Each structure stands twice: as structure tokens, then as C-alpha cells.
Amino acid sequence: MSAAVAVLISGTGSNMLALLDAMAADGFARPVLVLSNRPDAAGLAKAAARGVATAVVDHRDFRGDRAGFDAAIDAELTRAGAEIVCLAGFMRILGADFVTARAGRMLNIHPSLLPKYPGLDTHARALAAGDVVHGCTVHEVTPELDAGPMVGQARCAVLPGDTPDLLAARVHGLEHQLYPAALRRFVAGEREPVLLEG
Ligand code: GRF
């Protein structure tokens, strides 16, 4: 039986769709749940339209109770039988206990060439630094933000005239290639990183 994958989102869910499409195309894994912390996340309807189960754990119901938020997500993942969790634009930080319990079974995609630019505003920071190469990283999730072992990276040139929005759009396209390739290799147990050039 192929690996059961849950995808956690907060918004558009274009990376989530790339993962669902890749899993549907060659069956290396199967999506068992798409979960959002925001009830209005556009990705929820897109997942449902593909016949994938969806759930919402609204972080606003857990103000000041991070452990409760994590426990509610954990309950949904357990109910769905998720073995691997992919964070795909999930904009909440998960607690160390939650992350540690899923060590080696949770991935994230980040729009920079980690270890450069963990956190937010990665495209603007790459431009401000004068970088000539930028890109995105899929990594295992560890309690330290955007710092776990690298599973894959995709690079592209920074072009003259690039703005944060232009660069973000180019990197976003790369993300949709990288995440499925990285997940495929991860579930196969191959530990050589996926390296793509855009
Ligand atoms: C992506 O840029 C991803 O790298 C970051 O959040 C964004 C999510 O975009 N973590 P989408 O919702 O997958 O379109």
C-alpha cells in the first residue's frame, strides 16, 4: 500500500494541488487529507473537487492554547491515517512536541535556498542582498523553523529588473516541480537530495 499523505495549507494551495496531481498521476503515495487552519482557504474547495477529504482546525478557536491547536490537528491526522505530513503554505508554527512526534515523517516547502532566508519576505531579502541565484527548498520539519535536513532544492537565476513579485512567481513555478519530486523520493526512502535548475 502506498504512503498515506496529509497536506496542511493556509491559503491558495497551489503546491498542495501539485502534490495531489502527482500522486494521482503515478500513485507513489495517496492523499488522505487536506487540512487548513483557515476555513476560507481557497485550497480546501480545490482539494474537495478532486475527491480528497478536507478538514479545518481554525487557529482562532485556540487563542493562547497552542498545545490544544496541535492536539486538534493531530486528531485529524490520526483519524485520516496520515503517515506523512506535507506543509504547503501552512502559516502557523507547530509546537516542538508535535514536530518531534513526527520526526522524519513531515516535510515543508520554503521559498529560498535554505539555509539562506528562513522566515518571511524571502524574495525581497534575496534581491536586497544582490543574490544572482535564488530558489526554493523542501526540507524535513524539525522544531527549529525552516532548518531541518534538506530533501531537495530548485534554483533559478535572479534576472535584471526582477521585483519580489516577479521573483516569487518564478520560484512558485519551481516549487510545483520540486515538491512532488522531493516527496516521491522521500517516500521511496532515497536520501540523495533532488536538485533542479529552473
Ligand atoms: C509557497 O511559496 C511556499 O513556499 C510557502 O508558502 C507559499 C504557498 O503557496 N511556504 P501555495 O498556497 O502553495 O500556492
TrEMBL record:
Site (Raises pKa of active site His): 146
Reaction(s) catalysed by this chain's protein: N(1)-(5-phospho-beta-D-ribosyl)glycinamide + (6R)-10-formyltetrahydrofolate = N(2)-formyl-N(1)-(5-phospho-beta-D-ribosyl)glycinamide + (6S)-5,6,7,8-tetrahydrofolate + H(+)
Keywords attached to this entry: Purine biosynthesis, Transferase
Binding-site residues for N(1)-(5-phospho-beta-D-ribosyl)glycinamide, renumbered to this chain: 13-15
Signal peptide range: none
Enzyme category, top tier: transferase
Pathway the protein acts in: Purine metabolism; IMP biosynthesis via de novo pathway; N(2)-formyl-N(1)-(5-phospho-D-ribosyl)glycinamide from N(1)-(5-phospho-D-ribosyl)glycinamide (10-formyl THF route): step 1/1
A single Gene Ontology CC term: cytosol
Active site: 110 (proton donor)
Listed GO MF terms: phosphoribosylglycinamide formyltransferase activity
Regions that span the bilayer: none
Pfam families: Formyl_trans_N
UniProt keyword Transferase, yes or no: yes
GO biological process terms held by the UniProt record: 'de novo' IMP biosynthetic process
Residues reported to bind (6R)-10-formyltetrahydrofolate: 66, 91-94, 108
EC number(s) given by UniProt: 2.1.2.2
InterPro entries per record: Formyl_transf_N (IPR002376), Formyl_transf_N_sf (IPR036477), GART (IPR004607)
Residue span, Formyl transferase N-terminal domain: 5-183
Described purpose of this protein according to its UniProt entry: Catalyzes the transfer of a formyl group from 10-formyltetrahydrofolate to 5-phospho-ribosyl-glycinamide (GAR), producing 5-phospho-ribosyl-N-formylglycinamide (FGAR) and tetrahydrofolate.
HAMAP family associated with the record: PurN
Family the UniProt entry places it in: Belongs to the GART family.
Official protein name in the record: Phosphoribosylglycinamide formyltransferase
Organism of origin: Oceanicola granulosus (strain ATCC BAA-861 / DSM 15982 / KCTC 12143 / HTCC2516)
UniProt gene name: purN
